[in-house]
Specification:
This protein has six helices and 14 strands. The longest helix has 21 residues. It has a four-stranded antiparallel beta sheet. A four-stranded mixed beta sheet has the order 9-12-14-13. It is 23% helix and 28% strand. Helix 4 crosses helix 5.
Amino acid sequence: TIVLSTNQDRQIERIFKSLEDTVIRNGEAMPAAELELPVRLEVTEPPALSSGELVTVPVSVFDPDLRTMQQQAAPDSAWNSLEDYPQPLQYVEKQIQVLQSDGKFYLANERVKQVDALALLPTPAVGAEPVRDTSSILPPEGVQSFADVKAMQSAQLGDNAFLQLMAFYHLDNSLQYLSSLSYDLFEEPLRFDGRGLALDNSSYYTGSRALMLGIGGVSPDAADADVILHELGHGIHYQIVPDWAYGHTGAIGEGVG
């Protein structure tokens, strides 16, 4: 892999090269597992779109996050809980298109759908049985559903449903923006779980085209649109360049995302 870095005069300033298809992790050269040994996900899916109709409803979210919205300065010492935040919670109203099926509302449409992650399914060795890895996955919670529009509108920070709403709105809004630029990158609805990982980290799994957000740490990742869109950035890379790996693509991906 060779990546050229140029200046505004189109002169080459740096050359990044990798003569072997390996990535360096912890000082060790190894294959890019996301391509060579993709991890798939076992999930619970929402009802099919054909089972109901799409409706537009208003919901309350952060855009992009609470601190930025309120221009709250960084604290002198870390906040350790929601109670430490010095201002009242504030939301903005946004419109989302969701599935109404069998008397309930689900976070699903033609672009995005919320799923409940159950297990990671690493690619098994030849002849070996698949192994379900649940070590980093939250216990099953079921697909998020709402009994009525009021229940959807009343979700707030601290509720599991709010994190799913945040991820759904920002992913869907960004995919609509990409579509307006004539970039229709995903052939199927992008799957996500706003409470997918029991980690202080989030991931995009290219093998399943799914985005899993972590809840570790003081603030769950789905409460911040920057984290949501960073992971979407990884998905965009893989959709544009299916063999996105090796060389300095890891660093480039983290920066662009």
